[in-house]
Amino acid sequence: MTPTTPRPAGAPVGRRLVLGLVGLGAAGVLAGGPIQRGLAAVLGPIGNHDPTGLVGLIPVGNTFRFYSVTRGAPREDATSYSLAVSGMVDAPVTLGLADLQGMAQTTIVRDFQCVTGWRVPEVRWSGVRLSEVLDAAGVGAGATAVRFTSFDGTYTESLPLEVARRDDVLVALQMLDGDVTHDHGGPVRLFAASQYGYKSLKWLSGIELTRAEVPGYWETRGYDLDGTVGTTNGRSDEPTS
Length: 241
Ligand SMILES: Nc1nc2c(c(=O)[nH]1)N[C@H]1C(S)=C(S)[C@@H](COP(=O)(O)O)O[C@H]1N2
Ligand SMILES: [Mo]
Fold this sequence. Notes:
Blueprint: H1 15-31, H2 33-46, E1 82-87, E2 93-96, H3 97-102, E3 106-113, E4 119-129, H4 130-137, E5 145-150, E6 156-160, H5 161-164, E7 169-175, E8 178-179, E9 189-192, E10 204-210
Parallel strand pairs: 1-10
Antiparallel strand pairs: 1-2, 3-4, 4-7, 5-6, 5-10, 7-8, 7-9
Molybdenum atom binds near residues 115 and 198.
InterPro entries: OxRdtase_Mopterin-bd_dom (IPR000572), OxRdtase_Mopterin-bd_sf (IPR036374), TAT_signal (IPR006311)
Pfam families: Oxidored_molyb
Protein name: Molybdopterin-dependent oxidoreductase
């Protein structure tokens, strides 16, 4: 994806642009794969999460849509990347990519479901269990939730501690067939298998133990604090596993 100037967080995306995308989608149907891949790339920087419901009509198949509420994020690599674990912990820690790679790696295969309706079946994820990262800092008495921040500078999310401690929540280093790519939130993103995609924060840079759940980016814009796949957010989906 080409670097572009950041759009102010939460700036509205024009309806005309969304309608233009629907036109592109029609072209994709006629022309097949390559344009659809291009379209997925186009959908990324827009990241408006389809307030009109029109983008959802574009057929892209069982593939990830690239979402970012910002125009992307800086590129971080093995030398520059760091993950700070702080807040209500016994001892704050900062982990580099090599630290995370040196911890026990867990692989899980789960569906990925966005609250807007698209679902990617049986995605392979690998990384460190979030619970092990939390244990590295030691969860302090009184903490009931975990807040996540992104080095895109804008996106935030949270999970109740009991969800955060589940075996199917990973600080993911790998996704699909290799390292988490930049567009998918690399080098490190969160994956919370039981939750809708908005909980799986990309470009993870901070984990903070908090006294109560802090509503994140989409939750202050109407999404449910509980992102469990099923009947939250006014949906009725099969649970992912
Ligand atoms: N930093 C950041 N993380 C994010 C988002 C985002 O806009 N910014 N979008 C979320 C939503 S709503 C979904 S469905 C998934 C999409 O992941 P993908 O872009 O790898 O397909 O990322 C989630 N994590
Ligand atoms: Mo989503």
